[in-house]
């Protein structure tokens, strides 16, 4: 029985830590939105898919 599945696998790096959801407020102090933040590069977005991994960090570009 062969264990070769003929599918090359990428080396997996641990995803950078993402914090959130954080509450965002408007200028009157009312809850306006929720956002997530990548702790490695500082990317903030209202898109919850950031929880699955930061696209900026996965590309290897460092915003700092």
UniProtKB/TrEMBL annotation:
**Annotated ranges, domain DUF8118:** 18-54
- Organism of provenance: Halomarina halobia
Q: What is this protein called?
A: DUF8118 domain-containing protein
Family matches, as Pfam families = DUF8118 (PF26435)
| Superkingdom per UniProt | Archaea
Locate the region Disordered. Answer: 1-24
């Amino acid at each position: 029985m062969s264990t070769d599945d003929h599918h090359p696998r990428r080396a997996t790096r641990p995803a950078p830590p993402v914090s959130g959801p954080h509450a965002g407020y408007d200028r009157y102090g009312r809850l306006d939105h929720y956002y997530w933040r990548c702790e490695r590069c500082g990317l903030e977005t209202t898109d919850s898919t950031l929880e699955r991994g930061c696209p900026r960090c996965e590309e290897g570009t460092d915003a700092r």
